[in-house]
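User: Predict the complex with fe (ii) ion.
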Amino acid sequence: MSDYQIPRPTSGDVLDLILDDHRLFEDLLRQARRNDVDREAARTALTELLVAHGEAEEEKVYSTLRTKRAIGEHEQEHGKEEHAEINEAIIGFLEAKGTDTDKYDSALEDLATAVNHHANEEEQTILNPAREDVSLDVRKELGVAWATRRNELLDQGCASLEQVKALLHRAEEEGTIASPKAREEADEIEEKAKKEAKEVEEASKEQEKAGD
Ligand SMILES: [Fe+2]
Ligand SMILES: [Fe+2]
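Assistant: Here is the predicted structure with fe (ii) ion placed in the model:
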């Protein structure tokens, strides 16, 4: 039983409800960092909330915002990609066995980076356009749909290691995020290109020197 009681709102403007959760992410990240609390409980609350929040956004919010032309395909797909990146960071966080190890600290830092980046981008590129282009009535309807799904996922438990791995696998299958192998290959290509660019730069410096 977690010490953290996650609020279960059932209605409201979906934009306000999502922003409330984004604030809660920050609180729970901070709790998970403290050394005078039950970190295991903070970790459970944080990961359950992150998964329920993001899944409910994908299922109930993003597609309607797209139908209403508040966001385009790019914003929707990019939002899903960042959820997958958060899920990947959650896996690393859950795989840290203790809560007082270097592995725990660095996995938490990776997760905080992914969550803060996504919250910032979602607020700027998804929630702001929705505030301008979607009526309050629709936002309230979305509030009920999103909160209902979020609470259902929280009640049934949605962030065991197996569950999060399954979500990441689904994202890879759907092409939302590249497979680890493909990302490794892309990183290698980038590294190689950087190295080559540096060599060209150095060669041209040498030539300049020789010309002086
Ligand atoms: Fe969000
Ligand atoms: Fe999100």
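Residues 18, 22, 53, 57, 122 surround fe (ii) ion (ligand 1) (CB under 6 Å).
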